[in-house]
């Protein structure tokens, strides 16, 4: 049985006229790493909120269909229990940081404090999580004194430390430097290997192709396409619908017109591009 | 109007030394990208250009104005700064008021204000949103409002702090178009970015910062080809540069047309 199931989910925020999610059907297996792509306004963040229970429990509005995670229905649950299973890292880390803590270390411990984890275990879990995401040296800094990308790592770490069964990440690398971005994808892949189920909204196609198991392309609240990263990310349908593609894909598509790309399939990753362009 | 930075050092009140001796000259009309690791000092550096931060030691001059001798309000007539997070910048009840605020404060004549606001709104494709409250717009469009409100000030230099963060392909295209238009008008554009492909496609000069110092500074192609040095500040070369290297192309390529002609020559 799928770990996450969305069945005919349609959702409208309280003050909007049009549904932001329309008839979404989706199944995600335990330990699967799914990436969600789509233009701005496609409903990506709303999908994250729906998985994390904020839609509809916090935002209210009108929802139909069912969201099920680990055999429990969102409609029959309350947010305080739902969040024990599902962790969400917000798109904008400024909105996530509690404002109640003086140091990064305390900020990351905040969630664990709230669920009453014993002190020694808490300390160890915070240290392990910070080392995993490479922010140990920021432990004593104030969360507000950090750069955008550093804050984003803190926001991610404060969710990872909770060890949710389902990890939902809304553009977790948007403000990160390039190599840091790749590292975060690597950390998330590792979490999935260890059995955590991951849904990650991202624009960085090259790394999605390297690290994710499956891609869901969302447009105007509906699933436009889903499948293996290479299939989805090289599809003409994406380009026609204003989705971003990797430079390897767009360049090979152009080269193909000039007879300089001979393969049937277009590349998404560096290795695929090297393979196709080498003499 | 050149921007001159001499031995700039800056220490935050917490004791963190964010800039450790920066020397740079940015000429009038240059298109410069600043890249580098999170926490390298990129935002700290550009916040010196409009006087939001003042040097601990050393100096920053915008034309003949040294930033310590002028208020940020006054420096705002020479340097426009678009914040990384539009929510830190926007405060008006509708888009038109927001975009008009800057040029009004600079004391331009009414006709000039109207003309500048109109141009900024059309460049950022906000014409149909002038009466909307910025906070009712999606984050994407809020970003465009933040851009428009600075462009409307018609300053000789404009700074964009991570303009493409969280933007989709269509909007990144819009932002690239805005930068190209500003270039045509002879403006200096300084942009902090982590999007190295965007950087390669839109900027002539790239400065890589690392731990509060300049690691590399030069023509985009020269800087972006230095894979090992860039890695010190957590930056990868552009996708096509990496591909060209792996394929053993002799020259460094950064853009699609260069890559394809290099492949065509090889074939």
Provide a descriptive summary of the structure in words.
The complex is a heterodimer of chains A (279) and B (267). Chain A is α/β, with parallel strands linked by helices. Chain A has 13 helices and 10 strands. In chain A, the strands form 2 sheets. Chain A has a 6-stranded mixed beta sheet with strand order 6-7-8-3-9-10, sandwiched between helices. The N and C termini of chain A lie far apart (46 Å). Chain B folds into 2 domains: 3-236, 3-Layer(aba) Sandwich (Rossmann fold), CATH 3.40.50; 237-267, no CATH class. Chain B contains 11 helices and 10 strands. In chain B, the strands form 2 sheets. Chain B has a 6-stranded mixed beta sheet with strand order 6-7-8-3-9-10. In chain B, α3 packs across α4 (110-123), α3 (95-105) runs parallel beside α5 and α4 runs antiparallel to α5 (139-151). The longest helix of chain B has 16 residues, at 169-184. The model of chain B has no long low-confidence stretch (mean pLDDT 95). Chains A and B meet through α7, α8, α12 and α13 of A and α6, α10 and α11 of B.
């Amino acid at each position: 049985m799928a770990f996450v199931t969305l069945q005919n989910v349609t959702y409208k925020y309280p003050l909007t006229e049009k549904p932001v999610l329309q008839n979404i059907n989706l199944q995600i297996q335990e330990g699967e790493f799914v990436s969600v792509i789509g233009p701005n306004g496609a409903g990506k963040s709303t999908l994250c909120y729906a998985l994390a229970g904020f839609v509809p429990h916090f935002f209210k509005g009108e929802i139909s269909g069912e969201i099920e995670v680990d055999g429990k229905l969102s409609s029959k649950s309350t947010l305080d229990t739902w969040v024990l299973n599902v962790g969400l890292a917000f798109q904008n880390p400024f909105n996530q940081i509690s404002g109640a803590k003086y140091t990064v270390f305390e900020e990351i411990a905040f969630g664990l404090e709230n669920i009453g984890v014993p002190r020694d275990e808490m300390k160890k879990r915070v240290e392990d999580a910070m080392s995993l995401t490479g922010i140990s040296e920021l432990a004593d800094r104030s969360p507000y004194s950090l750069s955008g990308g550093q804050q984003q790592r803190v926001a991610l770490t404060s969710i990872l430390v909770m060890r949710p069964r389902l990890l939902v990440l809304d553009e977790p690398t948007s403000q990160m430097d390039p190599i840091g971005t790749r590292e975060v994808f690597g950390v998330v892949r590792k979490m999935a290997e260890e059995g955590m189920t991951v849904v990650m909204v991202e624009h960085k196609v090259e790394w999605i192709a390297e690290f994710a198991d499956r891609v869901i392309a969302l447009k105007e609240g509906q699933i436009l396409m889903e499948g293996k990263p290479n299939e989805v990310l090289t599809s003409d349908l994406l380009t026609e619908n204003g989705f971003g593609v990797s430079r390897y894909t767009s360049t090979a598509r152009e080269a193909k017109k000039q007879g300089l790309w001979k393969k049937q399939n277009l590349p998404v990753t560096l290795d695929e591009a090297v393979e196709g362009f080498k003499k | 109007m050149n921007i001159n930075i001499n031995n700039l050092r800056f220490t935050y009140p917490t004791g963190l030394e964010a800039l450790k001796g920066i020397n740079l000259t940015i000429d009038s009309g240059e298109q410069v990208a600043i890249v580098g690791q999170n926490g390298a000092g990129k935002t700290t550096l550009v916040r010196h250009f409009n006087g939001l931060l003042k040097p601990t030691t050393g100096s920053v001059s915008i034309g003949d104005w040294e930033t310590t001798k002028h208020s940020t309000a006054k420096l705002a007539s020479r340097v426009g700064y678009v914040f990384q997070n539009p929510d830190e910048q926007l405060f008006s009840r509708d888009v038109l008021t927001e975009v008009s605020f800057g040029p009004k404060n600079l004391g331009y004549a009414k006709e000039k204000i109207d003309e500048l606001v109109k141009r900024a709104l059309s460049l950022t494709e906000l014409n149909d949103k002038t009466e909307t409250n910025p906070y009712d717009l999606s984050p994407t469009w809020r970003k465009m409002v933040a851009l428009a409100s600075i462009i409307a000030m018609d300053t000789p230099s404009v700074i964009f702090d991570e303009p493409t963060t969280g933007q989709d392909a269509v909007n990144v295209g819009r932002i690239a178009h805005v930068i190209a238009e500003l270039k045509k008008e002879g403006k200096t554009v300084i942009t902090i970015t982590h999007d190295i492909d965007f950087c390669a496609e839109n900027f002539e000069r790239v400065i890589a910062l690392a731990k509060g110092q300049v690691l590399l500074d030069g023509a985009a192609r020269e800087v972006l080809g230095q894979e090992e040095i860039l890695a010190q500040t957590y930056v990868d070369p552009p996708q096509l540069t990496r591909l060209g290297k792996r394929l053993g192309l002799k020259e460094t390529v950064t853009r699609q047309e260069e890559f394809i002609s290099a492949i065509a020559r090889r074939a």
